[in-house]
TrEMBL record:
<keyword id="KW-1133">Transmembrane helix</keyword>
<dbReference type="GO" id="GO:0005744">
    <property type="term" value="C:TIM23 mitochondrial import inner membrane translocase complex"/>
</dbReference>
<dbReference type="InterPro" id="IPR045238">
    <property type="entry name" value="Tim23-like"/>
</dbReference>
<keyword id="KW-0812">Transmembrane</keyword>
<keyword id="KW-0472">Membrane</keyword>
<protein>
    <recommendedName>
        <fullName>Mitochondrial import inner membrane translocase subunit TIM23</fullName>
    </recommendedName>
</protein>
<dbReference type="Pfam" id="PF02466">
    <property type="entry name" value="Tim17"/>
</dbReference>
<dbReference type="GO" id="GO:0030150">
    <property type="term" value="P:protein import into mitochondrial matrix"/>
</dbReference>
<dbReference type="GO" id="GO:0008320">
    <property type="term" value="F:protein transmembrane transporter activity"/>
</dbReference>
Length: 182
């Protein structure tokens, strides 16, 4: 650990663990402001691994779907209440409707995220390059695979929608990186 008076090439911030305890010990530590990696190879990689991608997209899809579905179902439960219903019956109707819709949409979007992550990782491995086209191709394949059981026309339309959605997401991410200072 570098001394408080030493300057180093890395950006650090001073940390005093005992400042709120009013203890006369004056220890200052220089903590790094950027992530530290155990191996040098980890610092050069700017992408999640395929397993991390799988968990990330599946979890985000499920969570988003569950929240949106529960909100939609709760509103439907509120609209379906009848004038003679007691408060307990209305609350039960809202909770049942929200839970059912949340599960359905959460599972659907979780599966979409799972397929997308698997296809994107496979495409990156097959092409050997990591560029924006991989996400668009994965979106195209995800839509087509998700709706494949509904027939070829539905699969083609869903594939086109998936490819467009992935393209818009990639373009939006690049625009945010470029124009929004974070």
């Amino acid at each position: 650990m570098a001394d408080a008076g030493e300057s180093s090439d890395r950006k650090t911030r001073a940390y005093h663990p005992y400042q709120d305890l009013h203890i006369p010990i004056q220890n200052l530590y220089n903590l790094p402001t950027s992530p530290e990696y155990l191996f040098h190879e980890e610092a050069t990689v700017q992408r999640r691994s395929w397993g991390e991608n799988l968990q990330y997209f599946t979890g985000c899809g499920y969570l988003t779907g569950a929240i949106l579905g529960a909100s939609k179902g709760s509103l439907e439960g509120l609209k379906a209440s009848e004038p003679g219903d007691t408060l307990k019956l209305r609350i039960n109707r809202v909770l049942n409707s929200g839970g059912q819709s949340g599960r359905k949409l959460g599972n659907s979007l979780g599966v979409v995220g799972l397929i997308f992550a698997g296809l994107e990782s496979g495409i990156i491995h097959m092409r050997g390059t990591d560029d924006l086209m991989n996400s668009v191709l994965a979106g195209l394949g995800t839509g087509a695979l998700y709706k494949a059981a509904s027939g070829p026309r539905s699969a083609a339309v869903a594939g086109a929608i998936g490819g467009l959605a992935a393209g818009v997401a990639v373009a939006g991410k690049q625009a945010i990186k470029r124009y929004v200072p974070i």
